[in-house]
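Here we describe the complex-level prediction in full. Unlike the single-chain runs in Section 2.1, the two entities below were treated as one system.
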Amino acid sequence: MNMQITMFILNGITQAALLFILGSGLTLAFGLMRVVNLSHGAFYLLGGYIGYSVFQYTQNWWLALLSGAISIALVGFLFERFMLVRVRNSNLGQTLLTIALSMIIADICLAVWGGTALKIKVPVSLNFPVKLFGVTYPSFRYFLILISIIIGVALYLILYKTKIGAGVRAGVDDRETVDALGINIRAIYSLVFVLSCFLVGIAGVLGATYLNLSPGADTQILTYALVIVIVGGMGSLSGAIVSSLILGQIISFSRGYLPEYSMFLIFIPMVIVLAIRPQGLFGRKL
Amino acid sequence: MKAQTVRKPILFILLATVLVSMPFYASPYTITTFIRIFYFGLLSLSVGMLIGQLGVVSMAQTAFFAMGAYVLGLIGFERGFPSPWADIIGIVFTLVAAFLFGMISMRTRDMVFMMITLAFGQVLWSLGTQNTSLLHGWLGIVGIRPHTIFGIDFNIQRNFYWASLLIFIICLALYWILIHTPFGLALNGVRDNPRRMASLGYPVYWLKVVFFVISAFFASLGGIMMFYNTGIISPSAMHMSRTSWILLCVILGGANYFWGPVIGTTIAVWFEVLVSQITMRYNTIIGIVFVLVVLFSPSGILGIANSWWKRKNRKSKNQINTTQNV
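The structure predicted for the assembly as a whole is:
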């Protein structure tokens, strides 16, 4: 019994690691641009599928990870450059464009990769049993947690130790002043948007390896990412960490004990946080 | 101006005649499509009224659309609760849910509101797909048929058509009356300047919550109509693609105009019928249309028509058009 609980906690942390990679990019982009990228879930799906195909051809997992991330970053770059800028003055217009994009991407994924669930088989070199805390757990999941920590540290360093990061943080607080100070806020927008796409591409390939890919995963993943942003507070990195840890545990335990309500239960932290702090745990006043 | 005041009632009478007499000349397929337009029209009305009158985009309306039908199916169809009461309980349940959720979500604004409503809709969708013991998962609740009321059998398509047309027109009339009451005018004030309205003593927050509940009423009524018409309520009724599609209907017609959602839905439903006959990649086409509408006509078809009308009038008579955009 005790072993089972340890297992659930470990699963929850693995889930949280994936959720953090998903949510951190979205929360940064949203905090800065005030635009919810509702194609985040579709990007996850597309990244995972591209990674899957690359893996099928080359059998190289690292290449799959890289190609998934880079291709989504490219898609995001083109989308931002040629679509979003055209309705820059309207937050609603930009959000509607991301909805339209998500419809198109999900439909193309269905046409190309079909309706059955696909899964990247992890190479044995990355996936061997590890005995830790009294339970045997696949090493790939520890590896996923490690990647997530590396990404978190990298984001922290970029945000708090570089000039670009200072521009991003200032932009979250007050866009107009940053623009007036002569910092190119447009370039920062593009950069953060592409970064969030890059991260969701990584998450897609990791998710394709850890879970699996099928049509419908896009909206589910989008829901998770939105709840992370809402609970953690928009634009907050620490908020994304805390909320993905909470969400990961809820998902893991409810899958074990209440599988018919596992998605419904993630609604609870959202309602509690919104009732007490509408701006999210670490968010600034709206 | 004068020509327009004469022309408008004539246009309405003509339209009403065409719609009411439809079962006598149109094919059953056309009539089915129009029934679709009526219930999705109620759904898009519930989305459009929130955008037009309150300036917020709710992506939870499809969840309310399905919720009433699910409750009706659970207690009325599966457990044999008598007819009018099961329907009423379905709607009341939705209204209570909308009230509670409105109290939470209306504490936020703009994009955050949109995210929260989307998350709410998605969570309910997942509940529908995951819960097999009560809601039967992906299958949903299947098999309900319309009743016979006062000796009129609503299983006959033309009777069902007239009933849905009547409900649809009554709802439109109710909405028209609502937005011309002091309550409706106060809502416009809230949309344009919430702070000023608050300082004038209006309970801004409660106005918004109440209007949210009213919008959920139209949505759940539409959902129940769909349930009776198709005989099935399943999670796909509240899938995100449905939410996006209904938002497209509203934007396509013109969210800020009274007739916008109705016109948008009419076009979108017929478009859906035509495109799905030609290609399997229906969602891609819809997505592309969505992009084009957002990029080139954000105020919708009625917005384009309105500005074209104004320009024409200015050119010919150099006279200011005072068409009221409600």
